[in-house]
UniProtKB/TrEMBL annotation:
PANTHER family: ESTERASE, PUTATIVE (AFU_ORTHOLOGUE AFUA_1G05850)-RELATED (PTHR31299:SF0). InterPro entries: Emycin_Estase, Hydrolase/PRTase-associated, UCP036794_erythomycin. CDD domains: Ere-like (cd14728). Pfam families: Erythro_esteras. This is Erythromycin esterase family protein. One of its GO terms (biological process) is response to antibiotic. It comes from the Bacteria.
Amino acid sequence: MAETTAKDKTGLAKYCLPLQTAQDLDPLMERIGDARYVLLGEATHGTHEYYTWRAEITRRLIQEKGFSFIAVEGDWPDCFDINQWVKGYQDTPENIEEVLRQFNRWPTWMWANWEIAALAHWLRKYNDNLAPEQKIGFYGLDVYSMWDSMKIIVEYLEKEDPQAAAYARRAIDCFEPYGEEESYATALGSMKPSCREAVLQLLLEVRQKASQYNHAPEAGLNAEINALVAANGEEYYRAMSAFGGNSWNVRDRHMVEALNTLMNYHGPEAKVIVWEHNTHIGDARATDMVDDGEINVGQLVREQHKPEEVVLVGFGSYEGTVIAGRGWDSPMREMPVPPAMDKSVEKILHEASPENKLLIFDQQPALKEYFRAWMGHRAIGVVYHPERDRGNYVPTKLSARYDAFLYLDKTKALHPLHQEAKGHQMPETFPFGM
């Protein structure tokens, strides 16, 4: 990691922009310009300020630059329920809290939280004034919901398309003995043929007929993405079970394939806002991920499009609290985030001045050059042990990994929906009047 001096660090502050109010995002809006892909990161999956600042950026992109939809690091079936609610589709629950409480796959707090509820309320109100084809969508890109997606598509096709349902039944019959994804992954070691042929035939059939399914709002899109999740989910769990298999790459390639499907669906003028962890949206080529042959969403999107079409925005903080678990499927809890370690991005920016900052690298050559050096950059996942925080730093060339960076000096945990708010009402989660 780069050696720095106190003089170097304190001098950085004059090149950073203030970040206190919604208006302080104006330089970022200028940097985004006419980009069609804006990817917004987070350094944890449980920090209030990451959600609220992303929500404010999102709101401005929708209102000022005509962005078409939001795509997140979440399961397609659950997020499609949010999409239906914010667009005011028939037969949706009366309130968003009821929708979000159906998120029951751990970690529930990632999307079932009051911050997302507030954003969804704003989207619903905004969409009420738009024609159906102009309404802003909310979709999940992840691959984890393979089993749920299989069930949804089989039930749907059995009612709507008996010919395609034959492929669906073949696929579901293949999966049936294994019950859930983890059982399938475990069984793969002793299986002869996998279920991949069945789900790929299903995906091909659904893609060929997707346009015929649109008698209900977005029915064709829903069928196609669920079939894609089934196909790529099978590959993901197979990679997990294989010695040396790279399930990370399968997952991120799936998210980009799902993203491309959504962009094609929304047309040539579509613009998307992506919400994912920094480890997905920050270009992997500027981290040590490249040493392990790993790619990610940010890298793939950059490679597939012109530089001016893509803006990657990272997030980080010096200290605070976070919602996480101490093990997979363990209870969520509020945990301390200790002060960042020496020579890390977060410690350097804190020592420059203990204030929130916006860094836009190509507008400040001095910042871009300084952050070309390798530095530790904290990444906290859904499983976290504060006492082992030193193991949560990714060697990073910050100004190559992102186009812009929001530094938030002190942050606090988000507000999970499954932990009741005082008075059973939405807490004050948005500082910008959403």
